[in-house]
Structure formats: C-alpha cells, structure tokens
Write the structure tokens for this entry.
Amino acid sequence: MLSIKDLTIQTKAKTIVNRLELAVRPGEWFALAGESGSGKSMTASAIGGLLPSSVTAKGIIAWKENNLLALSAKQMRSLLGNEISYIFQDYHGAFTPFLRIGSQLDELIRAHGRQDRKARKQRCMEVLERVQLPAERVYRSYPFQLSGGQLQRAAIAAALLLEPKLLIADEPTTALDTLTAHRVLQLINRIRMETGISVLWITHDLRHVRKYADRIAVMRTGSLVETGETQAVLDHPSHPYTRRLLAVPFRHCLQALPHVCPTAPKNRPHQIGADHLDNEALPPQRLGISKPVVTVSGLTKAYAGGKTVLQDISLSISTGECLGVVGESGSGKSTLARCILTLDPLDQGELVLDGRAVRGLKRSELKRIRSRLGAVFQHPAAALNSRLTILQSLMEPLDQLKGYVPSYMTGMPSGRRDIAEHLLGMVKLPSSYLDKYPHQLSGGEKQRVTIARAISTEPDFIVLDEPTVPVWM
C-alpha cells in the first residue's frame, strides 16, 4: 500500500533520515520504533508533505503509483484526510482551544466538500460513538473540558472522519497512563479489524509493539537497522543495537540503583517495596531525618460546575525525597501538581511551601517562593513558546531573577549563552540547539530542554508531570 525507497531527509547542516526503505501492506499494523531523535516522526511527516520548509526530502514515497514527494500542495491537501490521516503526538495541539470539538470535526468534513450540515453532524456523531465517547457531550465540549484520554480519542475520531486507507499514528498514547494507553491501542486495533485500515505506528514502547504490531522496523540515528515480523525481531534480534535495546528490561534498571537490594526477586521487579530496600544504602534524607519542604493537608479542589477533582488530600515531601503519585487519566494527578505549584488555587485545605503557608501571602512573597519551585510538564510542545529560541526559553526563569548567577557556573563564564550551553550539556544536548526553535526538535529533545529549564534556578522542589512520555522506554 505504501512503499518508501531511498528516502533521505536533511537540512543544510544535518542528515536526519538516511536512505530509508520500508513498506506497509494493506490492513497491516506496522511499527516504526527507535529512540528519541532517530528520525521516526520526520519520516511520518515526509509522507504527508508536512516537513518544515528548512527540511528537504529526496527519494520515493509511493502511494497508488504516485510519488508523494512529487505531488503539489493542492494534490496533497486532497489526499490528506481522504486517504492518509494522522494522529499526532501532541494531540492537545491538534485542536484549537477556542472552538468546540464538534465545530472542528465539522470543519474537516467541509474542507473536503462533503455533505450538507445535517449529514456532517450525523457523521461526526457516528465517529465519536465509534471511539467510545459520549458523542453529544463531546461534540459540544471545548478541548480543555476533556481529559487526556478523551481528547486523544477525539483526535482518533478526527483522523477517521473521512474513512482513510492509511492511519499514521505518531506516539498516539503520549502522556496517557498505562490503562488509558492500553484502551486507546485496543480501540485503534478494533477499528483496524473492522475497517481494514493500515496503521503506521511511530512508537518507543516495545511492550505494546509486541502485542499489537504485525511487523516492526527499528531506526537509529536516521538509519534503518532492522525490520521484520514483530515476534521474530523481538525474540531473535539480529542487529547489535536492537539486542542492546531489548537487553535493558525494567528489572535491570532497578538493580542499577544504589538503594535497591541486589537480592530482590528478579521475576517480580515491579513489586519491589520497602521490604526489599537496603536502608543502609539510603542517603540520610531518604530516611525521614530532614524537614518537609512541601506539606499539603486537607486539600480539596473542584472545577466550575461542581465536579470535585481532589478530595481531602494530605501529603508531606522532605528535602531530597522523591514521592511518586500514581493514577489513571482523569484521577487528579496533574491538578494536584498545579495546586502545589500554586498555579491553581485551593478550594479547601492548607499548602505549606518552604515553611510558609501559601494562603494569604502577598504577591511578592509568593513570587519568591515560586522561584524555588521547578516543573516539567507532560506536554513539552505546549510548555515551550514556539516563537522563542531554545536559548530564550532556557533563560526565561533566570531572567526573572535579575542577576542571579547559579552555583553550577562557579568558576566559569556566566553570560547568558554560557549558562544556556551548560544547561544543555547537563541534559546531553549540543550547544548548536540554542538557536533552534521548538518545532525543529524531536519530542524527547524538547522534553530535555524543559528539564534543563526547570533546574536552571536550582529549585528546592521540582514537580515532574509525566516527564518521560515522549521518549524511548
């Protein structure tokens, strides 16, 4: 159905994809896997003619005897949606926040000259029901009124509106919890079985690849290193890179941590708990000796309309401690994070930061406390201003502190660019990225930038809201 031959994607300074060759069969679920920055999303964008103007593509992307790289913009617009459709990694960015979901779905159908208004709405309702959403409510809702899982299903509905033949799903479960991600992938698979649509799946998650994909191709630094039937590749990888990826299961990561007892059961790594920890190896602050840096008591938060999101939450986090908050999509995890970061007000309860109760503080005092907080949000594309360079984004927090020089720059030049280069080095990114814009970076690279920005002011406390969702697992 889709055949890619000798595809090369490059900028003036860098080759992103090098002579890639692969093919997707009718009705097949094909996984394109690889670590962040390997060229997966660029390959997906090239298929639909969605590459940035600074990036060029050469080779053949054959679709029904046409080379998609040779089609005009008008021809590609006719093709997209009708025959080839996308679910993008940043599904929040796929919707305009000021228009209802129904209006945006209707616009997609109208753009291709389909049907009258009544028929268009009927089609929208059918597709929303197909993706297991309450159609009438979602049709009338704005994007911010839906949970992450609901919005992702709405994005799937938008991709299926015109009954395409190929669905390109670029990390479709980004920022979703494990249960919701599993349901979304099950949904895509059920629709594939019912309609015969082909799926090109851009992913980093080998656990789900094994369960859903018929075939897999593994990419590394722009080159295809291995391809074949999923079970064959994952059970008997032939390339050293694939073998290295498969040789780092979760239990090995746990055993590498200094505070995990080496005698922990190897067949149940996910159940390692307090009885398997070596308290002798824990740093003093992990043993509860240090004072709390954050204390929450009786926190209650409700949205407009009366829905209670958080009910009587109490917790305490000490200096040097890492507290994990776990729950499925819509359970209130991100709302709790926003309350602790003082981005959302508390309806009831008390929040104490740095030994001071937040309620009733003056704006200047609150600003001082906020300077000691850091945050890494789950949507790196939305967390970075698309109009600012990486240098400008990195320096935003430090600019607010007016003259503050971080201790990690002691003994080194401390100009703006020097600090930004050092921060990028801390997250393993080259200094050449400073003059780039967010859209020129991969999802994992953008997230590294947000991590660097979060630690730039040397915060006492940092909130990580799903910080690793777009990167290789």
Observations:
- The first strand starts at residue 2 and ends at 10.
- The first helix runs from residue 40 to 47.
